[in-house]
Amino acid sequence: MAALALAALFLAMIGGSEATWCVCKPEMVDTALQKTLDYACGAGADCNPILQNGACYSPNTVRSHCSYATNSYYQRKGQAQGACDFTGTATLTTTDPSYSGCTYPATQSAAGSSSTPSTSAPGTSTPTSFTPSTGGLGGLGPSTGISSDTNHGGLVLEPGIGALLFAATGTCMALLSRAKL
Description:
Layout: H1 2-15, E1 21-24, H2 30-42, H3 62-76, E2 90-93, H4 108-111, H5 161-180
Antiparallel strand pairs: 1-2
Helix pairs in contact: 1-5, 2-3
């Protein structure tokens, strides 16, 4: 019985992970989204695709560019807890926000590793400034500390896996204690 429970748990863990993306909330005003966009691009997101002539430039809106930038930041931080907060302007989704010609990365490796913010050439304009704030984070960053360590002994943990492992450990211990009776 315990072996069957362990086998079912193992299969659920390896087959049940869903990709997650970080997107800007649709009800937020453009000024809040602009601040989030500026922070994300200045703090390590790959904003090249949302620059003019980039694959994700169109639609040329603050909301669209904000979602791409927050997702890039979130993925580059290894989907760390709190990396998609941005003082409440962004949220996680399991619905892929990619659209024709614009692919949102779904993993840290797909998001790349460069943390140098990009700027557009003089004379080009976009609805975003991509200017990182100076003198502090201004409260726009993640709500918790972020570790860039995704090794965890060689195991890359998916979001929510900690709670699943905790529950599984308790279930297995209960089954094993009954088996000893």
